[in-house]
Here is the input.
Amino acid sequence: MKNWSSSFSSMAVSKLFLLLFFLSAVLSESKIVAEVKQKQSRDEPFVGVNIGTDVSDLLSPAELVAFLKLQNIGHVRLYDADPDILKALSRTKIRVMVSVPNNQLLAIGSSNSTAATWIGRNVVAYYPETLITEIAVGDEVLTTVPSSAPLLLPAIEGLYSALVAANLHTQIKISTPHAAAIVLDPFPPSQAFFNQTLNPIIIPLLQFLSKTGSPLMMNLYPYYVFMQNKGVVPLDNSLFKPLTPSKEMVDPNTLLHYTSVLDAMIDSVYCSMKNLNITDVVVLVTESGWPSKGDSKEPYATIDNADTYNSNLIKHVLDRSGTPLHPELTSNVYIYELFNEDLRSPPVSEANWGLFHGNSTPVYLLHVSGSGAFLANDTTNQTYCVAMDGVDTRTLQAALDWACGPGRANCSEIQPGEDCYEPNNVKNHASYAFDSYYQKEGRGSGSCDFKGVAMITTTDPSHGSCVFPGSKKISNKTKEASNNTTGSSSDAEKLRLITVGSQIQDCLHIFRAFVVFFIVHYSFLL
Here is the structure.
């Protein structure tokens, strides 16, 4: 009896120990999952803008910064390290990516002292008053200037060493933007791989990015994918439009459904990295956009398509939608670009990627209401009053006279010599006067009629240096959104944490099954 009782007590203690260990494992797992979720909640994705300067009437640096603030733009990418713009950005909350132009790679990649000088002049001289967060070394070097490719990694490493010497390597990340063409066989994403002829450069580059917690920068344009694959890739899929299940792209290897071309492009990059055993480097989209105007060979470069793409892109990022492969991780995106660069060479689309004209008037009005404060040119509620087409001159003149007289519209800008005098015709002058009255009346019901010769439009009628009253009233009407810096290293940390958490979860599931087996086994013995 004593032996049995002793055996029973020993078995009871063992079972109690196993149960306690089981509960401890569950609590540990819950802690890991909670840590992952907490990390995700802290990291808010952002949309930034690229600022090109091939603009005939570019704003002054001070005006540019004031405009960025007005539009609630918190992240910008410069294609150089313009000292005047960097000074103007001082003591603002705007995060800046500076760039090393391709023509400087030879000098920097050949000399560590030159790299150190570059960091001293273009980063240390401004930081932290100017919030420089990334350095882009070159632009699409591997595909556009392959002769400079051997210098790319030495240039990056030299600049990084200079950042380490200045103790800025944890605050400022360094990488290089690539064209989508470095990825071959991009769809389905699970089959994608980097061009193997580039592996001698890409593999050590990815290892560097992994070691330093820096992102892989990619310029990704669904516009070009669509144009090169018309009839295969649906336009709606390229523009983030809702699709019926039958039109969704499906990866046959993972069975993941893709409703947007951009998501498929991002996942093809992740799969290409995984094929090289790199799983902790995040993708940063340094360029993406859609042109608003093109030549006869570019029929899909339209205002409507550009508006749709960029509006949906902003919503997609700020909604933290992630991708089918990585729903837990949303890539940050820089829209190409802020201004139309009217000095660029043909084709026509090259000069028409901007959200705004060089004088800061919108090319089109984005529809991003409800996605936070980013870009105050939100278009959903912005309307204008203009003269209708086909109205006879005498009737329009009478309406114009009333607006500028009894209606008390501000018609000073359509006087000779003023910005909106040209084109000098009744319809143009009437449109300006009608809009002045309409805005003055708070866009109230019946304030855009003028006996049936006026109409309301959402298209900004401003042109050249002539800015209509409605444009001057564009303001942010949405709640202020968080624009905190998320940093590529925190995203990389998230990837590592998620990977480790997943592995631990798998081990704990196996251990729990093992524990349950022994509990059941001992129960039968009793």
Summary: The two ends are 14 Å apart (CA to CA). Confidence is low (pLDDT under 50) at residues 1-23, 25-42, 473-486. Residues 218 and 379 are 29 Å apart (CA to CA).
